[in-house]
Amino acid sequence: MARTHLGTRIRENRKSKNLSQKDLASLAGISASYLNLIEHNRRSIAGKTLIALAKGLGIDAQTLSEGMDTSLIDRVKRSGLKMRGFAIETDRSAEFAARFPGFARLIARLQDQVDQQEQQLTALADQMHHDPFFAEAMHLMLSNITTIRSTAEILANETDVPIDVARRFMDNLRDEANRLSTTVSDVLEHFEPSSETQSMTQGTLSFEALLEQNNHFLTDLEYKTTSADALIENTDGDSADRDKLRASINSYVDMAHRLPIDPFMEQAKQVGYDPLVLAQMLNTDISSICFRLAHMPTDADVPKFGLLQCDGSGAVLYRKQLSTFNLPRFGGACALWPVYRCMSQTGQPVSAFLDMPTGERFYTFSISYPVAPPQIGMPAQNESIMLFTANYELLANANFAALPQLAVGLQCTVCPRPNCTARRDAYLLGKS
Amino acid sequence: MTESAKQLVLVVEDEPAQAELLRYNLEKNGWRVVCVDSGDDALLMYRETMPDLVILDWMLPHLSGIEVCSEIRKNENGAHVPILMLTARGQEEDRLRGIDVGADDFIVKPYSVADLMERVARNLIVN
C-alpha cells in the first residue's frame, strides 16, 4: 500500500487540523523554518522531536511514525465528498480510518467499485464518441429526423400545399422512416459485442482510459513520483488484464526513462519535431521517437500528435487518436493510409498529407521497421508506425509543398468518396 | 416583386428529401432557390449565379461543406455572401472550425423550419 513520507504526513495532519506551521512549531518547541524542512522531507526526525510534533498534532507518535495508508484515507474522504447532502465529516477521514479501519476499508472498496464503474462508463462514452461509424450513423439519423419533422410540420400545419407536392412529401416521409429504421438496425448490429471483442478490449481499454484521462501524459510516471505498481494497485479485472496493463505501463515507463521529457521537448522544438533528426540526434530508434512525440504535455506551441502502430497483418498494436482523426480499434482502416504502404519499404520513411472527406488535413510520418532479427527461410517480421498531426504549421519541413496529398477516409463503411480503387466495403450509410 | 428581383439562395444538400423541403420552404417565403447535391457543383453554381445566400450541408460526398465554404471565401469572390451551415455536429470544436473557414451561422440538425427561415431572413437583411 502506498505510504507517504513522515514529513508529508506531518504536513497533512497539520493541515487537517487547520494549524499553521508557526502554530505547530510553537506547540512542538521548534522553529517554523525547521518544521518547514521536516514537512518537505529534507530533515529526518525521531525521538523527542517526533513525540513533540505528534503531541502537538494530538495523535499517537507511533501512528504518526508508521503512517497510515493515505490512499485509504483519500478514498474514504472522496467517498464522503461525493455524497453531497449528508453533512459527512470528511475533515475527520484520517481519524475515522484510524479508529475504524475495517469500516474504512469497506467504504474505500465500495468507492473503488463506484470509481471503476464510472471509468467504464466514461470509456464506453468515449468509445462511442470516437467511433466513426457511430458518428456517421448519428449524422444520418439526425438528417432523417430533420426531414421527417419538417415534412410533418408542413403537412400538419399548411392547408394550401398542392396535392402533387403533398403526395411527394408523403413518399418522402415513408422513405425517410424506412431509412431511419435501417440505420438504427445497423447501429444496433454494430454495437452487438462479440466475445472476442470483449476480451480484447478489457486490458487495452484500461490503459487507453488511463492515458486519455491524463491527456496522454502520465506526469507521475514521467517524474517518478509514483510507480507502475502503485498505478495498477487499484485496478480491477483478472490477472491477464492486469498483466496487459502492467506491460503497457512498463513500456511507458521505459520510454520516459530513455527519453526524459524536459530535455526531449527542448530538442524536439529545436528541430521542428522531425522524427528522423531526433532519432539521429538522440541515437535511438525511430519508433521510440514517434511514441515520445505522441506523449508530450499539452501546450499551444506543441503539435498534438496521434499515433497508430500496426503489425505486419495490419492489426492495431497501439493507437492514440486525435479528436478529429479516429482510429479503428481492430484494423479495417482506410487501405490508402501510408502506415500500410510503407510496409513494403522497410526502413524507408514516408511523409504525406492526408485529406479526409470531412475536410480535415493531417501531416503524417510513417515508417516500417523490423522487430525480429532476420532468419534464413523465415519471413521478415516488421511493424509500422504512423505519426500524424493537424498542427503541421508547428513542424519544420521545407518540403511541405512537394509532399503528396492523399484523398483518404477513415474506413470504407463511413467513407463517402466515390470511385475509390481501394474500397473493399460498401459505404453503409447510403450516401455514395 | 419580379422574379429576378427576388434574392437567390443556393442550397447545397445531397439528401434529396432535405433539398426538396428547403426549396419548398424558401420559395414559399419569397426567395428564389437553386439546389445542388455536391461540393463541386456548388462551386460551379456559385460562380454561375452569384447567390445572395448559401445554405451548405457540412457532410457532403467528395468535397466537404467545410472545403466548399473555405473555397467560396477564398477564391470565388464570396468574401461577404452569408453562408449558413447545416450540421449534425453541435460540438464547440466543430463550430469553431466552421467559423474559422468563414461560416456565418450554424443550424444544428434536427432544426425547425421556422427557425431556419428566420435565420435566412436575418442573414439576408444584415447582408
What do you see in this structure?
The complex is a heterodimer of chains A (432) and B (127). Helices cover 53% and strands 9% of the residues of chain A. Chain A has a 6-stranded mixed sheet. The longest helix of chain A has 30 residues. About 2% of the residues of chain A have low confidence. By secondary structure, chain B is of the alpha/beta class. Chain B has one domain: 3-Layer(aba) Sandwich (Rossmann fold). Chain B is 46% helix and 19% strand. Chain B is built from 5 helices and 5 strands; from the N terminus they run E-H-E-H-E-H-E-H-E-H. In chain B, strands 2-1-3-4-5 form a 5-stranded parallel sheet, sandwiched between helices. In chain B, strand 1, helix 1 and strand 2 form a beta-alpha-beta unit. At the A-B interface, helix 9 and helix 10 of A face helix 1 and helix 3 of B.
Care to give the gist of this entry?
The complex is a heterodimer of chains A (432) and B (127). By secondary structure, chain A is of the alpha+beta class. Chain A contains 18 helices and 6 strands.
- Number of E-state strands of chain B: 5
CATH topology of chain B: Rossmann fold
Strand coverage percent of chain B: 15-25%
Oligomeric state as shown:
heterodimer
- Percentage of β-strand residues of chain A: 5-15%
State the strand order across the main sheet of chain B.
2-1-3-4-5
- Tally of contiguous helical segments of chain A: 18
Overall 3D shape of chain B:
globular
Enzyme class (chain A): transferase
Domain HTH cro/C1-type (chain A): 10-64
EC number (chain A): 2.7.13.3
Organism (chain A): Paramylibacter kogurei
List its traits:
heterodimer, A: 432 residues, 434 Repressor (Amino-terminal Domain), Helix Hairpins, 4 domains, 18 helices, 9% strand, B: 127 residues, Rossmann fold, five-stranded parallel beta sheet, 5 helices, 5 strands, globular, CheY-like_superfamily (chain B), phosphorelay response regulator activity (chain B), transcription (chain B), two-component regulatory system (chain B), transcription cis-regulatory region binding (chain B)
